[in-house]
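The records we work with from here on pair a chain with its fold. Here is one such record, which you should read through line by line:
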Amino acid sequence: MFTKILIANRGEIACRVAATARRMGIKTVAVYSEADAGAKHVAVCDEAVLIGPPAAKESYLRADKIIEVALATGAQAIHPGYGFLSENAQFADACAKAGLVFIGPPASAISAMGSKSAAKALMEKAKVPLVPGYHGDNQDAEFLQTEADKITYPVLLKASAGGGGKGMRIVEQSADFKAALASCKREAINSFGDDKVLVERYLTRPRHIEIQVFADTQGDCVYLFERDCSVQRRHQKVLEEAPAPGMTAERRRAMGEAAVAAAKAVGYVGAGTVEFIANQDGSFYFMEMNTRLQVEHPVTEMITGLDLVEWQLRVAAGQPLPLKQEQLKLSGHALEARIYAENPDKGFLPSIGTLRHLRTPAANEFIVSQSSASIVRIDSGVREGDAISPFYDPMIAKLIVWGQDREQALAAMAKALAEYQIVGLASNVKFLQRLIGSKAFSEADLDTGLIERHHDALFPAAAPVAIEVLALASASLLLSERNAVNNAGSDPWTNTDGWRLNGSLQRRLAFVDDGTASPVDVMYEAGRWLLHHAQHQGQQFNQMTVLQQNGNAIEISLGDRTVSGTVVRQGEQFHVFHGGSHYVLGYVDPMLHAGDAEAEGGRLTAPMPGKIVALLVTQGEQVKKGAPLLIMEAMKMEHTIAAPADGLVEELLYAVGDQVSESAQLLVFKPA
């Protein structure tokens, strides 16, 4: 077994690999970019070496630099994690030439499965079912459109070297084909350095089911059952679970044996995932093979009780697989939710910022064994105070739960999500709560279009904020004002408790909920406050007394009720966590904003830092509402900026290739 390995990755997967290595007594070397100098994965490894600037292509994608560090530190092997160089055949080959063990499959297997079109050709020879499509080398736009017309619409354009949902476009009709192809190729070349695409028929209600396979150097290969990864947004997985709901033993065996056959066909070694598109009738088609450990591997660990990273290390060291196929057993049900820094209400745009406040449910790290009770596990590469930058994937954590059955696992996930608190950037926690609780997911009515099909239920109109939430925010504000005065000294003229010689002071706290004014009238009375919310016209003033405050946690009495929650203030926003939900209230200080003018119109701004990749209009052009104006690329995904109304493009402020910061004005637009 190795005594030292280098982990050529960052974030939660680097921490995950380090945890198993530490348990096995193996020393670890971390590599990091300038943006990750204070990152968690740097802290948890035994050594850490700086390898370059923040941009991945200048640091985590520098194969030569990583190999140089491995040799200099005495590492015997390199674990690539997932993403970055994990499926780079040239890197695997370079490791071998340098005398280092690549903890993954041989370069030949990566090459064979690395191209979606080449892999499908291999599977066709092996008589594995394939979705109708064109997987050849001819990339002429006219030819590809002709092939798409033959396949019949809708079709799916997919980057041949792609993964992670990047470089994929659904085309509903022939007239939209060329524009979608150009966009797909741009994203593919930027993400993978290869703009080759394949065209397939787009199945309307498919499920995404993948099989975890493992092979050793002795020629043995097993499958560790399946994962259902059907719930996706923008072709990227949101929730994963194992086993797949409704999976029969016969179908599991058929898919497992097909996956093993696919792995053996390319001389596979190590952990791999064979992905299938499955119809509702039980038929399935080969989609691709990911020649690495998957993001969602923890759900397989939870139902098998196995440490897949340990298996990777043992196999890479030349040891046989720890178990035979007949010894593998599955137990219970596991779910994984990907906690992302993103805004679901704005098309899942990634969010960038610092984790000012982070509280998680009580959980284990990297646990793989089952018990009679439900288990919560969190795999994360960030801590409170860390930043989510524009350079890398905006994942905050993977929240994994295990239960004796799917119902228990769902309950555990709902409880864990309700206890997650994130302030400092947008997150998808509230969306995940709605998704877990939706009728479609709870009843396992799964397919890759679930989020789109149930959009209205998953994105409901905002309900008026409850008086309890406003009371918690009010209490936090009033207490902070009192504490500020107490810290300033004992001058009675600066006292802000509301006491007056001939009566009590009444004031209005101007809170804003989802853009709607939600004011609270406050009156001081003999050691307590009286609150009134204008939207509750029939109510008298509620008596409010602070019972206790511990940091951000507040408990109050409101009338005859006791209300508790956590309130975190960030600038002019109050983040209130109450009853398992997260509310964001704006607070308008009338003195601070007394001189503010109305916001300037005609500004279209960047939703996040990124690069301009296409200008779709010219200066002086008249456009209709919703017309695409330009395309930005951020975090290797394309985002289209559209016209907010009919109007005139008066000035374009950036050219193609320009980098722009968040909230930068992109163009001058004059509404009609």
Notes: DSSP finds 17 helices and 44 strands in the chain. Confidence is low (pLDDT under 50) at residues 593-601.
